[in-house]
Amino acid sequence: MAVKAKAKTKTAPAPQTAPPVSTHPISSDLEVRIRKRFPSPEGTFNLNVSFRALAGFTILFGASGAGKSTLLDCIAGLSDPDEGRIVVGGEDLYDSEKKRDVAAWKRRIGYVQQDLALFPHLTAEENVAYGLRTLSATERTSRSREILARFRLDRLRDRRPAQISGGERQRVALARALVTEPRALLLDEPLAALDRPTKSSLVADLRKWNQNHRIPILFVTHNGEEVFALGDEVIILDAGRIVAQGQPHQVMRAPRLETVAHLSGFENIFDATVVALHEDRGTMTCQLGKDAVELETPLVRAEIGSRLRVGVRAGDLLLATEKPRGLSARNVLPGTIQRLEQRDVIIAAMVDCGGTEFEVHLTLAARDALQLAPGKSVWVVAKTHSCHLMGM
Amino acid sequence: MNWEAFWLTVRLAAIVSTLLIAVGIPIAYWLTYSRWRWKFLVEAAVALPIVLPPTVLGFYVLVALGSRSPLGRWWESLTGHTLAFTFEGLVIGSLLYSLPFAVQPFAASFGAVDANLLRASASLGHSPLQTFRRIVLPLSKAGLVTGFALSFAHTLGEFGVVLMVGGNIPGVTRTISIDIYDQVQTANYSSANQTALVLLIISFVALSIVYGLNRRPWAVGPWR
Predict the structure, then answer these.
(1) What is the ipTM metric for this complex?
(2) What sign results for the dihedral spanned by CA atoms B105, B107, B110, B114?
């Protein structure tokens, strides 16, 4: 894996002005092995995880209540595990055996909380400079102005958090954490409240920063699309335990992991190749796998022949027993029902369309009305915009 | 209007409420952040002057300041006179008497600061004390002013403690509420009325400051 190989190499040191804060090795990794039990509304919650995060993005993915935030709190030192060990860049931050527990404020771990927690009485610049306590005033100013410029916040320097937009607040919070040159960065759903363009530009900024500061970034989300967009490594957390870890497409497609499919929200995820672009219509045609099945999807910046991934929610697909006519949906694929599975009040129909299997969710009533049974010929219908494109 | 008594009272109230800022902030800090299981006992003790009859409080303070107590003896060896029936004794009695009026607003405003801000400050390398100074105190300005104004107004109008601890020595311990009592005793109603009105107006102004400041939760603080 390219990412892991890179993590080991040390990149060039920070600018000449490097103050005492940046004397630590810029490349570091994070090792976590902790247990923590605490009461929750559904009885005792058991957090029991063990993983290693290398420089670059590691996505922590799980439903709300899976223990993601508690895990981050333990790493940041804001919550105490019952036992275990947390090591960053070779230094023990927590070790229950050695009775070692470095105070949160001495850990040098950047943490952007979900609510950002910008200081309301300080300006954007003062917020950013806050973590540079040990530097001289001039050094503090020059460093915070530099990062404000990098995050395109120079204009807002003198504004307070209440006077700037949500996306700008997000940038200030990120800049505030990054300017301290932390040894690891924890991001708790930093994109949750943002619209799509703001999200992607923020992620691009963060990636650029991460190229020169090879530290592990733990990125919490419960949004499956973000997992694919950010790539790298993903750790799937369910009820306090790691149920899968690896590259997004391996992990999220792992069929035996029902939780994964459920959490990702995309029951159907296919490798695809772009075969035609229809710029006039704002769509493109993708071929699924090696088979001849083609899907029309929204147009994205891609070239013919480029490989990407298409995700379709089973609930967004329709089944018809006769070839539909006069339909706005652009994808109508003939297929055969392989099997029907009842899950509570929905029916999951597995339909083979020329070698590609689709999962379609139906109601019990629909199954009965259409007299669906294995072996029956059907048409799978998908709107263009139900086909979500994800990067490789 | 007895101006001597008036200025003595204002001086007493100003000294007491200023000292209470210095004394009250550490107590309120401890009350806000301590996780000691018996903390509630300290909370009850601090709140005691609210419900205790001023004469009871005054009595104990008098005993504690007198020449039979260690504190009284120590003071006597230091200065050559006892604390009882002096202005300094009055300051000590008033400090205790007005303590909850400062500590409670302080603690309430410290506790109202969003815990996530404290967490953020810690992750940015600030110790709890640094965080308190740079985040909690500035965000608690309204509570600090409230505590100051309440303890000022409360000290201004005290009677029972003053009488017990200070007696009624003109220019030393005779405050305006005692002066009003004296004037009524001697049937000097118009002078009592004047003094009472001044006290009423000052108290109203002090409370107006308190309620004006706490009128609404400021999103970014009143200094916006």
Answers:
(1) 0.82
(2) negative
* Residues B7, B129: Cα–Cα separation, whole Å: 38
In which residue are the tokens 């470095």 written? Answer: A102
B134/A130 Cβ within 8 A: yes
Check A177 against B124: CB less than 8 A apart: yes
**Gap from B218 CA to chain A (nearest CA, Å):** 10
Q: Quote the pTM value.
A: 0.72
Chain B: residues touching A (Cβ < 8 Å): 114, 116-117, 119-128, 130-131, 134-135, 138-139, 219-221, 223-224
Is residue A181 within 8 Å of A21, Cβ to Cβ?
A: yes
**Do A133 and B116 lie within an 8 Å CB cutoff?**
no
Are residues A177 and B119, on separate chains, in Cβ contact within 8 Å? no
Return mean pLDDT, chain A. Answer: 83
Residue A125 contacts residue A168 (beta carbons within 8 Å) = no
- CB contacts < 8 A, A to B, total 78
Cβ-based contacts of A113 with chain B (< 8 Å) = 116, 119-120
Nearest-by-CA chain A residue for B141: A121
pLDDT digits (tens, 9 = 90+) for A40-82: 887 889 999 999 999 888 989 887 788 888 999 999 999 999 9
Q: Which domains does chain A have, with CATH numbers?
A: 2-108+181-264 (3.40.50.300), 268-390 (2.40.50.100)
| Contact between residue A338 and residue A357 where contact means Cβ atoms under 8 Å apart | yes
Other Cβ atoms within 10 Å of B211 Cβ, number: 10
Closest CA to B209 of B151, B149, B163: B149
Alpha helix ranges (H) inside chain A? 2-8, 68-76, 124-129, 137-150, 166-178, 196-212, 224-230, 248-253, 258-264, 364-370
Distance from CA of A160 to the nearest CA of B (A): 8
Burial of A358 per CB tally in 10 Å (0-12, 13-18, 19+): buried
Out of B120, B125, B138, the one facing A121 most closely (by C-beta) is B138
Residue A43 Ramachandran class (φ > 0 left, ψ -120 to 50 alpha, else beta): left
CA A336 to chain centre: 35
Per-residue model confidence as pLDDT tens digits over A185-244: 999 987 776 777 777 778 888 888 888 888 999 999 877 667 766 767 889 888 889 888
- B196's tokens: 């009472």
- Helix axis angle, B176-185 to B189-213, nearest 10°: 150
| Cβ partners under 8 Å of residue B10, min gap 6 | B156
pLDDT of residue A199: 76
Beta-carbon separation of B123 and A106 below 8 A? no
Rounded to whole angstroms, how far apart are CA atoms A146 and A340? 59
- Give the CA distances from residue A18 to residues A24, A135, A158, in Å, rounded to whole numbers and listed in that order: 11, 10, 25
Give the domains, in start order, of chain B with CATH numbers.
3-211 (1.10.3720.10)
Strand order through the sheet with A331-343: A318-320, A377-382, A331-343, A346-353, A356-363
Give the model confidence (pLDDT) of A324-375 as tens digits: 888 888 899 999 999 998 877 788 899 998 888 899 999 888 888 999 999 9
- Contact (CB, 8 A) for A227 and A388: no
